């Protein structure tokens, strides 16, 4: 499904050489085409409302800048179903055909950009990765819980990004290879170990689902800890770096806040075993501090 | 962005509708833990009647055990303790990183096992009590 409503027919022959009469006629033709287009959309909307093959969406709406919309409410949209339609497709259809002020973040539509994590039917999901046919009606679409709503389905991601930055989510090492042009090779086994953790798309679904992160604003959260895991387990970073990373993680609001509720693992759209990674970092932190020899 | 909207406590609680197994396990574990802590105080209170003599202790125990409500509470205590133990073992495995992909199944298993043990214990707990 396209983001845009099909473009109106452009008048190609509207050059300077065209007579005023033809211009007028073309103008009229264009207007009529627009009218027909509008009529057709209205009919489609009407049909969608009454037809069987539509999905009923209940979408959270809130707009702090319009006085009449400051009170949060749910809007109903009836979207005609097409095979393979996702929640994001349905939202885009609703925005294009019913209410152009409906606001939500999306970009790639293929579960890579991590923009459209939404709270759909009581669970954190990626809009573009969730099939409408898998959901019970009415499909209730809300912004991510435990985050401030900026407008409609858009939440303030600043806190989440702050937590991600806090674990230094980039490769750093002080053990460089000898030659200036040598590559930093990683063993296949080590790559396999961090493989799943590299798949994070920063969508914040895990953070939103985490009960502990909701109550403790300083808690790093599953995504940030997973990011730290990705680098702490990377052998190329060396022992010094690992030490530094563990010092960040074993602080009061680090890995020890996790109480293994498995909510993050459950909602992660990329199937990252987040709890497993957090638990492994807990063991690493213990091993790091307990030495009997 | 002029302002943002905090949906607050109501929203936080209303979203607690779709619990996954791990979440229920956590809630039950917390709850049973607090019940056991509470029981510890009554336990100490009853035991310390022995300070004023063996007869006082025997009287207290006999008086308590003759009440039906105490017998029922004991069944409840067993349920709470057994679940806490079984889920504790489950959490031990989770901490060791063993069988994390079966964490939901092990939660259901500990629930069922708790149920079985509690039902089996009822004849023992409720024997010889007069209503």
UniProtKB/TrEMBL annotation, chain A:
Keywords: 2Fe-2S, 4Fe-4S, Iron, Iron-sulfur, Metal-binding, Oxidoreductase
SUPFAM superfamilies attached to this UniProt entry: 2Fe-2S ferredoxin-like (SSF54292), alpha-helical ferredoxin (SSF46548)
Residue stretches making up the Succinate dehydogenase/fumarate reductase N-terminal domain: 56-161
The keyword Metal-binding is annotated on this UniProt entry: yes
Domain 4Fe-4S ferredoxin-type: 198-272
Stretch list, region Disordered: 1-50
Name under which the protein is recorded: Succinate dehydrogenase iron-sulfur subunit
Organism: Haloferax marinum
Designated gene of the protein: sdhB
UniProtKB/TrEMBL annotation, chain B:
Cross-referenced InterPro entries: SdhC_prok, SQR/QFR_C/D, Succ_DH_cytb556, SuccDH_FuR_B_TM-su
TM region(s), chain numbering: 31-56, 68-86, 106-126
Compartment list: Membrane
GO cellular component terms given for this protein: membrane
Molecular function per GO: electron transfer activity; metal ion binding
Superkingdom classification of source: Archaea
NCBIfam families documented for this protein: succ_dehyd_cytB (TIGR02970)
Protein name: Succinate dehydrogenase, cytochrome b556 subunit
Organism: Haloferax marinum
